[in-house]
Amino acid sequence: MRVKRVEIVPLEVVVRNFAAGSLCRQTGIALGTKLDPCLVEFYYKNDDLGDPLLTRDRIFAMGISSAPQLDQLTEQAMRINTILREFFTGCGITLVDFKLEFGTDHTGTLLLADEISPDTCRLWNNAETDERKRVMDKDRFRQDLGSVAENYQTVLDRIMMQLP
After folding, report:
1. Among candidate residues 94, 113, 95, 93, the one with its CA nearest the CA of residue 103
2. How far apart are the first and last CA of the chain?
């Protein structure tokens, strides 16, 4: 892990490969529907407002980001999605969706500024068809599906097997 001091862009960037969570609740899209192309969404990092979903125009009106920076956030999120999807597929895991946070360093360079873990990703076990056993992420806690730690360990074990 490399660490640099950054100024956080106050947006959570969510990449969705399959419908789940709030996307299903807000749109009625069926759980597990493949999204092709994937969705890239922006949420305002503000707990008092409940981290609302923002449109590009709202982001510009609020002065949160410029058009070039928003394009760069989208491009980086898509690139990260491609890498993570391929990696997790090799682990027998489906990358359903995930959240990223970015910041700019002292030169203005946009950098990934957050962890990538089962706490920031929605992951499904490809070997399971039983919904209760398929979930490998924080949704286990949210949906009272049993041991979170045991499933995080399974994710770690599979990742370790993929590493050289």
Report:
1. 113
2. 17
